[in-house]
Amino acid sequence: MGAYTDLMAFQRETEALSQIAGRLGWDQETMMPDGATPQRAEEHAAMANILHARRIDPRIGEWLETAQATDDVAAANLRHIRRDYERTAKVPARLAAELAKTTSLAHRVWARARAEEDVAAFLPMLQKVVDLRREEAAAVAGNTDPYDALLDDYEPGATGARLGAMFAALRPRLVALRAAILDKPVPAPLRTHFDEAAQLALSEKLALSFGYGLANGRIDKAVHPFSSGSGLDVRITTRTNPTDPFNCFYSTIHEVGHAAYEQGIDHAHLLTPLGRGVSMGVHESQSRIYENQLGRSRAYTGWLYGQMRDAFGDFGVADEETFYATVNRVHDGFIRTEADEVQYNLHVLLRFDLERALIAGDLAVTDLEAAWNDRFLADFGYAVDKPSNGVLQDVHWSEGLFGYFPTYTLGNVYAGCLHVALRDAVPDLDADLARGDTSKATGWLRANLQQYGGLRTPVATITHATGTAPSEAPLLDYLEEKFSAIYRL
User: Fold this and answer.
1) Which terminal residue of the chain has fewer beta carbons within 10 Å of its beta carbon, N or C?
2) Over residues 227-231, mean pLDDT
3) Mean pLDDT on 253-269
């Protein structure tokens, strides 16, 4: 056990430094003064250099040669460390530092360009990010598809071809369901002003109702909500809109799903490769099942209706059933994070196809806005009105997160599978949800998936929890059943 013990002690320090690097990113998006951007970019680059050097330390290779796994936990740790070591060794330290610095700068350029509706101001920086990620992908991929090398960062074992086939199977039924719904009368949107402080107070109550532990977390505001950290320090952000409190509430529940996954991992795995979510697809399965199958269910929205009346008084919705339809209102819109369940995945598929083309060199950065607008018009039937509702709406590409977008839809697919298994295991779930009590649902997810962290591969994680291999069919069946009932199709 000597080599394994030494390796894990070294890895623990690397994991701790990685958490510190993540905290720099959290601070940048929530509290950092704008003028600190150049210095923060240097700090990110310095941390990237340190982490890169540790991840390719020659001693890791020596330890891996002699370390023996005596149980499943040790075998999984060695699998993760070996994968990270071999992958990182292919990326020059200079490139890792340049990526960290450039994406830190690009984030602020994107934020300003988005606020000013100025795509041209962002494109030169985006070109730098794309060029660097292409270089990284080429270094890692060898003779395989460069996009797969980037995708593997977020969903180990996945390929663009396999996800493309799954998404192609999703699209026809989603498009048909969308068309059938949009022929029906649509519930009216909320039309009342909702106080920001009251929104934030209720969003905290919702976070607690889903088991978020504030002793090891906090809730802040950000332009683009996110979750950050793992183990004993897991933070989330949300945002508010004075005319749309659902933006705040469901952003909060979504991010709590991410945070609950991290908080739910067995503490025996703290600061080890198993002490964080195994992939972004599995992570998204938690955020989406919390947000949608649980948070937008008829039972839970009945409870939420009462909470909103307590917080805001009469806000123009007559009863619980009308409120349920309003929460699940299928409507035209530009923003992915505000999209209804039926149309959400169409937003993701658009981004997946565009970023694959960017990395392959089939789409020029200068043509990205036009390509986005053309695809959006084709998929949704109306034109993008301004860049912040189009190509500038998401933070991901400014941060170099190519390969991340498809994990959102993969997470929905996984959530559909988990929901079937959850309902089978907890047949009286709706009675609890109607009281705002999610403990049986979140407890089942913690026991069957969350506690294991990175013990298994992503597909094996879902298969272990559900008893079946992942498939898009449960998600499509759930959407058709739910929305057919709401819209009387």
Assistant:
1) N
2) 94
3) 97
- CB-based contacts of 318, cutoff 8 Å, min separation 6: none
Catalytic residue among 255, 262, 291, 355: 255
Contact 290, 210 (CB under 8 A): yes
Burial class (CB in 10 A: 0-12, 13-18, 19+), 142: exposed
Write the pLDDT tens digit of every residue in 356-380.
999 999 999 999 999 999 999 998 9
- Which are the contacts of 422, defined by CB distance < 8 A and separation ≥ 6? 289, 293, 429, 441, 444, 445
Tens digit of pLDDT for each residue in 112-153? 999 999 999 999 999 999 999 999 999 999 889 999 999 999
* In contact, 105 and 41? CB cutoff 8 Å: yes
**Binding residue per annotation — 284?**
yes
Q: Is 255 a catalytic residue?
A: yes
* Structure confidence by residue, pLDDT tens digits, 151-164: 999 999 999 999 99
Given a contact cutoff of 8 angstroms between Cβ atoms, the answer to whether 43 and 64 are in contact is: no
Which is nearest to 226 in space by CA: 181, 266, 283, 184? Answer: 283
Q: Let me know how long the chain is.
A: 489
Nearest of 145, 159, 6, 18 to residue 88 by alpha carbon:
18
Contact in structure between 286 and 417 (CB atoms under 8 Å): no
Pairing of strands 219-221, 233-238: parallel
What gap in Å lies between CA 408 and CA 285, rounded to an integer?
8
Is 262 marked within a binding site?
no
* DSSP-derived 3-state class of residue 232: coil
Q: What is the DSSP string of 60-83?
A: HHHHHHH----SHHHHHHHHHHHH
Class of domain 160-487 as given by CATH:
mainly alpha
When pLDDT is cut at 50, 70 and 90, the band that residue 34 belongs to is confident
Residues contacting residue 343 through CB under 8 Å, at least 6 positions apart: 174, 178, 330, 333, 380
Q: Is the pLDDT of residue 444 over 90?
A: yes
Instruction: Say if residue 258 carries a ligand binding annotation.
Output: yes
Which pLDDT value is given to residue 224? 79
Domain boundaries, the chain: 2-143, 160-487
